[in-house]
From TrEMBL:
Domain spans labelled NAD-dependent epimerase/dehydratase: 7-218
Protein name: NAD-dependent epimerase/dehydratase family protein
Superkingdom to which the source organism belongs: Bacteria
Organism: Dyella koreensis
SUPFAM superfamilies in UniProt: NAD(P)-binding Rossmann-fold domains (SSF51735)
Database matches in InterPro entries: Epimerase_deHydtase, NAD(P)-bd_dom_sf, NAD(P)-dependent_oxidoreduct
Length: 326
């Protein structure tokens, strides 16, 4: 679908941001990307702007003339969430309000607590157990308020992200497997018989692009759940074995004891430990509304998604997957 509209992606260096840039380009959008340090291998066809999401003037300058702002920026390694997450979102909301753009947030399940499990619908109660979850709730509340005041918003809530373009905050690439090393073992963080929600980033980005192609049909405050893959530990290990073509890959346990020992000294590990409750109970996103709106399932076969992710992480030779989901 071709369009004359322009989208700004804030946080375009990250996994969600970079994949969203590519998806919007495929759908004919003019794409503007803002990052503090644009990558050397900047995406072809994207207009890159240097800017800091914490600086309101940078976001406002980058947003001039755009129709959509995708707020895909996150502090690396969970560092400093209390200090930066809401100010960054406020800057994007202010810019969207000033230029008349819709603001888009790739959401997570951190804003839910056990009272909403195991099957999460869009209107499920949000009673998080962690400070990070509380911040996610606050982010969504600010977007809902912005929509009431005339700035439309779209939230696509997802499970744990994985994909070929970023491994920084990915459970798959930093927990289950090791970047740059052949896959010989999958270190699973939860019980092997408990289901968990996963979201392949190219599919997430493609879904966002399809939703934005039909912006006129979206509610002012639109929320959808991206079902992705719901696998228990055994299913994930088997999927990795099939993707790699090695039935001898070992199913191991993630070393939570080591995280516990080191968490007083490492903020990233401290935040990881707080999210352990999501591995102790089944958590699944109900995507009934999303599939009804799209009219088609947006999910890449799991083996292809895993193989492409492992290639991007340097765990498999490059080039064995020829195309991402389209």
């Amino acid at each position: 679908m071709k369009t004359s509209k322009t989208a700004l992606v804030v946080g375009a260096n990250g996994g969600v941001g970079s994949e969203t840039c590519l998806a919007l380009l495929r759908h004919g959008w003019q794409v503007r990307a803002m990052a503090r340090i644009p990558k050397a291998d900047a995406l072809d066809g994207v207009e890159w702007l240097r800017g800091d999401a914490m600086v309101a003037a940078d976001v406002m300058r980058a947003a001039q003339g755009v129709h959509v702002i995708v707020h895909a920026v996150n502090p690396p390694g969970y560092r400093g969430w209390d200090k930066v997450v809401l100010p960054m979102l406020d800057n994007s909301i202010a810019a969207a309000r000033a230029v008349g753009a819709r603001i888009v947030l790739p959401g997570t399940i951190y804003n839910y607590g056990p009272d909403a499990f195991p099957l999460l619908r869009e209107d499920a109660p949000q009673h998080p157990q962690t400070r990070k979850g509380e911040l996610r709730v606050a982010m969504e509340q600010r977007l809902e308020q912005a929509a009431r005041e005339g700035t439309p918003a779209l939230i696509l809530r997802c499970g744990d992200f994985f994909g070929p373009r970023s491994t920084a905050n990915s459970w798959f690439s930093q927990g289950l497997t090791k970047p740059g090393a052949p896959v010989r073992k999958v270190s699973y963080p939860g019980a092997f018989d408990i289901g968990h929600a996963w979201a392949y980033l190219p599919d997430v980005a493609e879904t966002l692009a399809k939703l934005l192609d039909r912006s006129d049909e979206l509610a002012d405050f639109a929320r959808y759940h991206f079902g992705g893959y719901w696998l228990d530990g055994r299913g994930m290990v088997e999927a990795v074995r099939r993707a790699v073509g090695n039935p001898d890959i070992v199913a191991g346990r993630f070393p939570w004891w080591l995280v516990t020992l080191a968490s007083p000294f490492v903020e990233t590990l401290r935040e990881m430990r707080k999210m352990r409750y999501l591995w102790r109970t089944p958590v699944q996103l109900d995507d009934t509304r999303l599939l009804a709106f799209l009219g088609v399932s947006p999910y890449t076969p799991i083996e292809q998604a895993i193989r492409h992710t492992l290639e991007g992480a340097g765990c498999l030779p490059a080039g064995s997957v020829l195309a991402t989901a389209a």
